[in-house]
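Late entry, written up from scratch paper. The run itself happened at the end of the previous shift, but nothing got recorded in the book at the time, so transcribing now.
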Amino acid sequence: MTKPFSLRLAAAALAPKLALVAGLAALAVAVPAQAQYNQYLRHDPARCRGNGPAVRVTVSGVKSSSGTLRVQLYRATKADWLETGRWLNRIEVPARQGTMTVCMPAPATGTYGIAIRHDVNGNGETDLTQDGGGASNNPSFNVFNLGKPSYSKVGFSLGQEVKAITIRMHYL
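Output as recorded:
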């Protein structure tokens, strides 16, 4: 047997094993991407000091100090924006009337949207006559436009910085 022939034979014997390893590696990459959804985070203002990616969200117009303010980070895509279970990070803090600031870290650079809901009575449900909401880039809300704003209207680019945005709350 010559050396080149034995190398070809060895390569042929390893090919199925290499294909299996490559398949497992691809599977391992797919699992963490799915696991990025639904991350409940504790509010940590220190994450907005220094490098990002993170968003310092100033929330204006909070009408009362009762209930909870929920801030959620989404990818600004049609498949993800405001879709059930498709939020990346969620931070809940006690509501404080007036203006509040929340630091929202992002998993990577990209295009994101932020949605905020003020659950005034703290029941975990959306009560249209009491609760308020807002979104990044402050799309208009009115009685004729109660549906979700488009991902293209709320989306913003985030690099390795800490980006500062302001969101105005809307109540009926």
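Residues 3-35 form the longest helix (33 residues).
(Scratch paper discarded after transcription.)
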